[in-house]
Amino acid sequence: MAAHNIRGKTIHSALHLTTAIRMPYQPLSESMLNTLRSQLRNCQIVIIDEIPMVTQPMLEYIHGRLVQVQDDGSLTENLWSKFQKWELTEVVRQKDTTFIDLLNYVRKRKKSTPFSPLHLATLRSRCVKAPDDNIIRIYPTNKQTSAYNYKMLQTTKNPIITITAVDTIATRIGDRILTAPLKTVKSQLPPEIHLSVGARVILTFNVDVENGLSNGARGTVTNIDSSKHFHGLPTFVHVKFDDVSIGSKYQIGFPYAESLDVPIHFQSEMLPSRSIMRHQYPL
């Protein structure tokens, strides 16, 4: 969402990177490279926000993509060797020294180390009662998150639909569908989701960053179109986003849909370390 708000792009979408960065560097195919060159033909400066969040392998991929795009040898040296590291030691986001001390303690402490009475008192002084059930809640485990989400689904009073991901593996005779989606692999697309009309949802996958359909966009499910299926997956899930500008080029009129509804199609992602493609809704 940060990229959409400033009319920018994420590193992944701008340079055609996957979520699973593998070393050594894997160059783009010629067809994808031509597309990227066309997109960056007028680019002269690349500005990266939150650079501390970018890992060394990611930096090498950024460098590799720019070398491929330039294709004249001018970027053959390691650009990152020209940068100098400066470590910032002053905390500027917080002015409360007690709270700063607590944050540093939480960051460095071991799980077995108890909190001091002062730290506990400071934490409890920050606790507030949730004003309503529509605010975003953050839980320490996926299990707790799923339990609360299902509880909120039940408040919609509409039928709850379970959508199971479709995992396929490429074989010599075509794609073979696995009997059940893998549950022990890391993916932005979950093996199973529960939805209903009226459910509050958030995008978990960058579908079209330039149009606002990016990780973090929030909205409400208005319809689940199951007229056609891809191995059990509905054709579309229609979402009305809180920011009506999100997905504007996809807002089309269906007989049962409002004009601001955005049809979300299932997305596909290659699972890391396996030759398996997952198909699921990024909600």
Automatic annotation (TrEMBL):
A Pfam family reported for this protein in Swiss-Prot or TrEMBL: Pif1_2B_dom
Sorted UniProt keywords: ATP-binding, DNA damage, DNA repair, DNA-binding, Helicase, Hydrolase, Isomerase, Nucleotide-binding
Domain of life, per lineage: Eukaryota
ATP-binding in keyword set: yes
Start and end residues of each DNA helicase Pif1-like 2B domain: 192-223
Keyword Nucleotide-binding assigned: yes
PANTHER family: ATP-DEPENDENT DNA HELICASE
Protein name: DNA helicase Pif1-like 2B domain-containing protein
